[in-house]
Specification:
Distance between the termini of chain A: 49 Å
Helix content of chain A: over 70%
Strand content of chain B: under 5%
CATH topology of chain A: MetI-like fold
CATH architecture of chain B: Orthogonal Bundle
Largest sheet of chain B: none
Strand content of chain A: under 5%
Structural class of chain A: mainly alpha
CATH superfamily of chain B: MetI-like
Largest interface: A-B, 37 and 41 residues
Number of domains of chain A: 1
Oligomer: heterodimer
Number of strands of chain A: 0
CATH topology of chain B: MetI-like fold
Structural class of chain B: mainly alpha
CATH class of chain B: Mainly Alpha
């Protein structure tokens, strides 16, 4: 138990900060995922075949390839790609990107593929009459989206987004292979130096369980809020 | 784009696909047995038994697969007593540790899929069986299980694909599956994009095959 105490002798405070890191990466990745789905959901719903193909290949490739492979691509290829872009602008020094950014981006792209599917499904299951009624009333396109479509879409999307959040949260454990000190990495370090892997990995599992449990509680509240009147 | 790297890494990655497929099929086999067992336990009326099954699936679905592999591979070997039992012969192998972790993980998801399939069986089907004087045991094996399997096919197909992606974690415990070999080639040649394209295509091809197999089975076993 003294291994888990806070302070210089124990790993409690390190694990606490690692947990905050996991939460920070998960939230960043989820937001990056939303950005991606903001781009790709309209492409999926578009009438143009070409745009559909682009969006479909994004979601199919990302959802069909292991997360770890995507992370390796970003980890090994990330700084190379940035340096290539920089060399076009005449900058030839070595650029190293921070593990946090690489990690959140890799997980964000994965999370984005899942949320794109969720938003597509939610928008498609809104009654067609709603779009037509808004059009007939002469409501402007963007107000139509924000005031009529979005509130209805969120109600349908939240239960599935909660699954995407769980997947994203658990996927962040894979970033530990890039050396970012989140829960898994910290447990790995602690297990190595105390030779007590069973304890530290079990604690890591407990922390993840706690995070998934608490976020479920929070999301349930949101769900109630958005399904008022149904 | 370096095509020679792509051409030379393709056979290496393809032979690594054999390990991926072995890991996948064995974990799915054991996972299905575990899933069926726990789905039946979940439907048991005894509150202690169904609570136990619920906690099992909650723990394995609420924690990352990576933690589960690490606990089984690094953690269990630490227990002195455990190393003296015959089980140690199995648990000292990273290959079997990975399979055990995958099977327990997919078993938890499978139990949820099967449970909801059992629960959505129309009571009329069971009542019809009863009114024909068929015994409860035969109703379960000959009516409930086949109907539940048909109901759960689409969800189980997704689970197979998720598990296939999950096998990539075996590379973290020194196994050389597709991802393990891909990482090795990337770190020796520094050509991440080329290797990703080749390895990713192999995975996508497997996803495609699984997807179509499930679609075929769904059609074959549909009620119409």
């Amino acid at each position: 138990m003294e291994f888990l105490s806070f302070g210089k002798t124990g790993w409690g405070d390190e694990l606490f900060y690692a947990t905050l890191m996991t939460i920070a990466v998960s939230i960043t990745a989820m937001l990056i995922g939303f950005l991606f789905s903001l781009i790709f959901t309209p492409l999926k719903l578009s009438n143009k075949k070409f745009l559909n193909i682009i969006a479909n290949s994004y979601t199919t490739v990302i959802r069909g390839v292991p997360e770890l492979l995507v992370i390796y691509l970003f980890f090994f290829g990330g700084s190379g790609a940035i340096m290539y872009v920089a060399s076009i602008f005449g900058y030839f020094e070595y650029i190293e990107i921070n593990a946090f950014i690489t990690g959140s981006f890799a997980i964000g792209i994965i999370s984005g593929a899942y949320s794109t599917e969720v938003f597509r499904g939610a928008i498609q299951s809104i009654d067609k009459g709603q779009f037509e009624a808004a059009k007939v009333l002469g409501i402007k396109k963007h107000i139509q989206f924000f005031k009529i479509i979005m509130p209805q879409m969120l109600r349908l999307a939240i239960p599935n987004l909660s699954n995407v959040w769980q997947i994203t949260l658990k996927d962040t454990s894979l970033i530990s292979v890039t050396g970012l000190v989140e829960i898994m990495r910290q447990s790995y370090i602690a297990a190595g130096s105390t030779r007590d892997p069973l304890l530290f990995y079990s604690v890591a599992a407990l922390i993840y369980l706690m995070l998934t449990f608490l976020s479920m509680k929070l999301i349930n509240k949101l769900e109630i809020k958005y399904s008022r009147g149904f | 784009m370096d095509f020679t790297i792509m051409a030379t890494s393709f056979p290496k990655l393809l032979s690594a696909a054999v390990i991926t497929l072995k890991l996948l099929s064995l974990s799915l086999f054991f996972g299905l047995l575990i899933g069926l067992l726990f789905a039946i336990l979940r439907l048991n009326k005894n509150p202690i038994i169904n609570r136990f099954a619920y906690v099992y699936s909650y723990i394995f679905r609420g924690t990352p697969l990576l933690v589960q592999i690490f606990i089984i591979y690094f953690g269990l070997g630490q227990i002195e007593y455990f190393r003296s039992t015959f089980l140690w012969a199995v648990f000292k192998e990273p290959y079997w540790c990975a399979i055990i972790a995958f099977a327990l993980n997919t078993g938890a998801y499978t139990s949820e899929i099967l449970r909801s399939a059992f629960q959505t069986i129309k009571p009329g089907i069971i009542e019809a069986g009863k009114s024909l004087g068929i015994s409860n045991k035969i109703i379960f094996y000959k009516i409930q299980i086949p109907v539940a399997i048909r109901q759960s096919l689409p969800a189980y197909g997704n689970e197979i694909i998720l598990m296939m992606k999950g096998t990539s974690l075996a590379s973290t415990v020194t196994l050389m599956d597709i991802t393990g070999v891909a990482k090795y080639i990337i770190s020796t040649t520094f050509k991440p994009i080329e290797v990703f394209i080749v390895a990713g295509s192999i995975y996508l091809f497997m996803t495609f095959l699984i997807h179509n197999l499930i679609k075929y089975l769904e059609k074959k076993y549909s009620f119409q």
